[in-house]
Design a protein that fits this description.
19 strands, about 20% helix
Length: about 525
């Protein structure tokens, strides 16, 4: 189900309640936010830029476009990109513009005083992002300390389905960034460093607006009943546009729109961050790396002492040679999870299937220990560029599991059901030898997953083009039930009768001996 040069992310916790609004300057927004996010249930049932006159602007934008290329990622990290990527990359562009400025601008005597946002503050916020034409609305908390070079962004938002609420905290300290997922409490949350997002670390989100060299005044606005002055990044263009509306020195709204192009496809992302009245009181522990970021999650307690379960697992993969059939250090999915993965890739115009020779879809019958560990993001095959597979952020022996888009307490790792299905990671170190299956003590030692058989392999064009899979995806995204795409994927593997939605089995290696010599 994964694709090279993309990130297979994890899933986040359920917290149905939004943070309070209209927080007083004399109250602690973080305390209010923490109180409000107590889970209501145990787990979720849940391009060309044209000619630019200022060379420093061109240089800054060129740098940003390279960063945007990194963001041409798979749906597995889409929530993280939608919520965090715009504000991070826009800040990087502003910093680059300030460092490379060759021109001098002076503030007009007719414009209001420029905002000098406090160097240390915290505030609750509302977030709206739009990707694949789907708006996602969330609530959260933002804090930064410029002197400590640290920032924290917490966001809770329903994603795709109302009952699937995702929870993500992004912490940047110095040159490092971690993403904490899976719950409001450290006992449930997971933590990962995600290098695929490009350069990591702290970036001041607001200081550009105080510098006439990189910002310009564009008028007055009213945001949620609050009057504010609007400032625009001078590097803004048809590719990126960033504005800050501030009430004096207090940030009210940050707006970012970006376009990125890859393979002839243009992708648009929009993000709006509205800040409640802020406080300069910030708990210092919130800007420190938490303990969980140095450890993976423990095995699921409900899987200890239990024998293996059987799973029909689907995987999108290349077909250049026999080794492309290997699922060691790869991500796979159940029926609904893979249907969602394929749909999101198609609807977001990622084109990863065609661009990276991901021509085949296989179904395997697997045995997995239910003592699931932390899900690993796995990418690439020996035949892809960059060469893979490479897995990050998960357990190196235990089979990993998560619900898509961070849904559910503990990423739904130990849950039996998820309305979006599940994604799995299969570490090479946990692969059972031929003829063996995971034991009841797999949580402590030994192998954690085995292959019963490769049931069938089809060419992706049969499903996607011949059976017009995209139409099912569009209907499902409109209805928010994903039944049609799941049924279409199932039908492709149930028979070879085209009239019933079936696809022919193109064959493939079924044993280690075959893997050494079989070529598609």
């Amino acid at each position: 189900m994964d694709s090279p040069e993309t990130l297979c992310c994890a899933c986040y916790a359920s917290s149905q309640r939004a943070p309070p609004t209209n927080v007083s300057l004399f109250r602690n927004p973080q305390e209010e936010w923490l109180k409000s996010r107590e889970p209501s249930q145990k787990h979720g049932t849940s391009s060309s830029l044209g000619i630019m006159r200022q060379p420093w602007l061109s240089l800054a934008m060129g740098c940003l476009f390279q960063l945007l290329a990194v963001a041409e990622s798979s749906p597995l990290d889409q929530f993280a990109i939608d919520m965090f990527f715009p504000i991070q990359k826009a800040a990087e562009a502003a910093e680059k513009a300030k460092r490379t400025s060759l021109s001098s601008f002076e503030a007009s005597s007719e414009e209001p005083a420029r905002p000098k946002v406090p160097r240390r503050f915290g505030a609750t916020m509302a977030v709206v992002t739009t990707s694949v034409g789907i708006p996602a609305k969330g609530s959260g908390y933002f804090a930064q300390d410029v002197d400590l070079k640290a920032s924290r962004m917490e966001i809770v938002a329903p994603y795709l389905l109302p009952q699937v609420t995702t929870n993500m905290t992004t912490l940047s300290v110095g040159n490092d960034t971690w993403i904490e997922t899976g719950g409001s409490q450290h006992s449930q949350a997971n933590c990962r460093s995600i290098p695929m997002f490009g350069p990591q670390g702290f970036h001041d989100m607001f200081s550009w607006a105080s510098d006439p060299a990189v910002s310009e005044y564009v008028g007055q606005r009213s945001v949620a009943g609050r009057s504010c002055t609007q400032w625009r990044l001078r590097a803004s263009s048809s590719i990126i546009n960033e504005t800050l509306c501030a009430d004096g020195d207090i940030p009210v709204e940050l707006n970012i729109s970006m376009k990125s192009s890859a393979g002839g496809v243009t992708k648009e992302t929009h993000a709006t961050y509205q800040f409640d009245p802020l406080s300069t009181e910030v708990d210092s522990s919130l800007l420190e790396k938490p303990y969980i970021c140095d450890h993976v999650a423990p095995p699921c307690e409900n899987g200890r002492g239990v024998g293996p379960l059987t799973l029909d697992a689907y995987v999108f993969h290349p077909g250049l040679s026999a080794i492309d059939y290997s699922i060691e250090d790869q991500n796979v999915a159940d029926l609904r999870g893979d249907a969602l993965f394929i749909c999101f890739d198609l609807l977001s115009n990622q084109s990863s299937f065609a661009d990276h020779n991901y021509s085949l879809i296989s179904r395997y019958s697997l045995q997995l220990s239910p003592a699931f560990g932390q899900y690993a993001a796995c990418n690439g095959y020996p035949d892809t560029k960059p060469k893979g597979p490479v897995c990050i952020g998960g357990d190196t022996r235990l089979a990993g599991k998560e619900a898509p888009f961070f849904g559910g307490e503990g990423e739904s790792r130990c849950a039996d059901e998820s309305p979006l299905g599940f994604w799995y990671s299969l570490p090479k170190a946990g692969h059972c030898p031929p003829g063996q299956a995971p034991s009841t003590t797999a949580s402590e030692s030994g192998c954690t997953w085995s292959i019963i058989k490769r049931a069938k392999t089809i060419h992706q064009t049969c499903l996607i083009k011949d059976h017009n899979f995209l139409a099912s995806c569009k209907a499902d995204f409109a209805q928010k039930d994903f039944a049609r795409s799941s049924a279409a994927l199932s039908a492709a593997f149930e028979s070879e009768d085209f009239s019933k939605g079936g696809c022919p089995d193109i064959g493939g290696p079924d044993s280690k001996e075959d893997v050494a010599s079989f070529v598609v």
